[in-house]
Amino acid sequence: MTVNIYKNYLSNRNLSENTVSSYIYDVRSFKEYLGEEYGLNLNETKKSHILTYLVNLQKNGKSSSTISRTISALKNFFNFLKDEKHIQDNPAISIHSPKQIKKKPQILTDEEIILLMKLPDKNTFKGSRDLAILELLYSSGIKVTELINIKLQEINLNAGLISIKGAKERLVPLNQYAKEAIENYINNFRDKKIIKEKDNQYLFINVSGNPISRQGIWKIFKSYEKKLNIKKEISPQTLRNSFAVHLLSNGADLGTVQELMGLSSLTAAQSYLNNVEFKSLEVFKKTFPRV
Q1: pTM: predicted TM-score of the whole model, two decimal places
Q2: Are residues 234 and 225 in contact, defined by beta-carbon separation less than 8 angstroms?
Q3: Most Cβ neighbours (<10 Å): which of 8, 140, 225, 287?
Q4: Beta carbons within 8 Å of 79's beta carbon, 6+ residues apart
Q5: What residues contact residue 159 under an 8 Å CB cut-off, 6+ apart?
Q6: SS3 of 100, please?
Q7: Residue 232 near residue 106 (C-beta atoms within 8 A)
């Protein structure tokens, strides 16, 4: 009953539905643990009970961010119980969140990029479209949201540029691979899929002639992840990461990476530096496979 009252309390504090659901889930999970392991009610909780619960979460592979959220949820809940005079002291008040471990952005190597780009069959509608998507994401570092919203009038293939709309419009250059893949897709396959009744100006469409969705992009990447058969996740974010790291590795400055990717600050661009292996421009010209 107390948890339901707390849920109503949270709902009246202008918190998002997701936040309320997350907090209540964390409290109920702890309540279940407390009852099963110690046969206690929530108002009988001691600090040691919470600590053993957090250790249990860690043993079960929960991330530091999940554990931090759990601590925050329990602190707030027990503050509520204290304010309502159900307990005298908050047992979670002195428990600190674990340090967040920043993972290196996952990237593909030059060789893995080459293998990935060989997978789509560019002589079919799906394959030509998929190759254009992969080449564009890798060579530009744009987000998947930006990709699915590109319209035909925003592409200048002669100049090798795409205008990306957003909070701040920016021009993104196309390399030769992306340019050729997009030309093949548009000229030989895309326009033949468009039915007059479903005519649209979005660059990337599905087999029905409608604008492709985020879910559609996700399915494309999962299919190629299986085919590539490497122990890495293949996603739009992986290609975005690879774009940034490969640029930095071969001499690009952080300001250029920030501008091309539409990042809000240099700090965001700096997150890629741990992956960088700097090379001279001369080595880059000789070895980088997709200049």
Answers
A1: 0.61
A2: yes
A3: 140
A4: 90, 93
A5: none
A6: coil
A7: yes
DSSP 3-state of 101: coil
Angle between helices 236-249 and 125-140 (to 10 degrees): 40
Phi, psi of 90 (to 5 degrees): -85, 110
The total number of residues written for the chain in this structure: 291
Place of tokens 């990042």: 263
Q: Is 129 exposed, middle or buried (0-12, 13-18, 19+ CB in 10 A)?
A: buried
Q: Cβ of 91: how many Cβ atoms within 10 Å?
A: 20
Domains of the chain: 2-83 (1.10.150.130), 110-287 (1.10.443.10)
In the chain, what are the helix, strand and coil shares in percent, each to the nearest 5?
A: 60, 5, 35
What does the DSSP 8-state code read for residue 17? H
Q: Are 24 and 10 in contact (CB under 8 A)?
A: yes
Residues of 238-251 as b/e, b for ≥16 C-beta within 10 angstroms?
bbbbbbbbbbbbbe
pLDDT at 102: 58
Task: Give the residue from 133, 115, 138, 134 showing the smallest Cα distance to 239.
Answer: 138
- SS3 readout for 165-219: CCCCCEEEECCHHHHHHHHHHHHHHHHHHCCHHHCCCECCECCCCCECCHHHHHH
Within 8 A by CB and 6+ apart from 213, the residues are 148, 206
> Sheet of 170-173: strands edge to edge?
155-156, 161-164, 170-173
DSSP string, 267-290: HHHHTTGGG-----HHHHHHH-TT
* Gyration radius (Cα) of the chain, Å: 25
**pLDDT tens, position by position, 113-169:** 999 999 999 999 999 999 999 999 999 999 999 999 999 999 999 999 999 987 778
Judged against a pLDDT cut of 60, whether residue 196 lies above it is answered with no
Question: Phi then psi for 81, rounded to 5 degrees?
Answer: -60, -35
